[in-house]
Amino acid sequence: MNKLKIYREYIILALIAALLVLYIIFRSAGNINYILPEPAVLDGESISGITIQGAEVNLEFIKTDGQWYIEPEGWHADNSLLNPIVKALADVKIADLISTSGNPAFYDLNEGKRILVKAYSGNETVRELFVGKVSSTGIYTYMMFPGDDNIYSIRGDLPSRVSDRDSMRDKKFLNINRNSVIRMTLNTAVTKPVALTKNSDGIWISDSFEADDSAVKAAVNMLDPLRCKSFLYDTPADSPEWTVIIYTDEGEEKLEIWPESNELYPARCSQNGYFVNATPYAVEKLLGAFGVVFSD
Fold first, then answer.
1. Are 135 and 96 contacting, i.e. CB atoms less than 8 angstroms apart?
2. Surface-to-core class of residue 267, CB atoms within 10 Å of its CB (0-12 exposed, 13-18 middle, 19+ buried)
3. Contact 216, 289 (CB under 8 A)
4. What is the mean pLDDT of residues 235-240?
5. For residue 163, what pLDDT band results from cuts at 50, 70 and 90?
6. Which of 168, 173, 256, 269 could be stapled to 240 by a disulfide with Cβ–Cβ 3.0 to 4.6 Å?
7. The whole model's pTM is what?
8. How far apart are CA 194 and CA 291, in angstroms?
9. Kind and range of the H or E element at 283?
10. Residue range 1-16, pLDDT digits in tens
11. What is the Cα–Cα distance from 68 to 75, expressed in whole angstroms?
């Protein structure tokens, strides 16, 4: 009886081992029964144009001399937002095949949801793909290639990097080398012009009042660069309240500032001509260097 029992146990163990081997074999075979696409790696520097089109987005970017622009307006785009998109498009690596017949709507890859992204090198299309939603972990993006019904995943959160036209604009509306500033003047309609000049010792002085050298230097440093809060698409009413002329070794720039509205100051700089909303912190710090006092 003991021998029969031992033989029976050996047979059971052998069957279990055989089943495990078969399971591993078939499971491994199932994992390699498809070949993932291997898109060619692109030279990101060669990408000179990007279009992003979907039901709620329609953007075109063109790169000229290293600067990205939003077309057709020709606005400066924020390079720090465009460069990660370029990198993601240049090196598309398929992580996995998600579905060959699944519901594309579940991945935001149906016609009403998906975003068509194209990259160009000159007039040549070098990358074209549909992007859907980001995975719940935030690690992967679901995507498809035009003409291919398969749904794949790629690393990264590409669609999350794409925003509306206004948000993709470069908010640096004034960019002056702080070390090149040698003189600044403030003009208003009701007061005499006030001038600030940097003397041979690098100290800021004025003939109109006792200038605070540290306050002026802090204001000048803020111009390198000065960022706006948002953009204005309508010309402010009336004339600007303050006009600051900034003289540098290379030339001069004019900054026009309107009275505060909705806790922001409308402004325009000659460097690009954009109308923007500047923050009270920036405006009051700059004008404060000229001795302008603002009530709390």
1. no
2. buried
3. yes
4. 90
5. confident
6. 256
7. 0.78
8. 9
9. helix 280-288
10. 455 555 565 566 556 6
11. 9
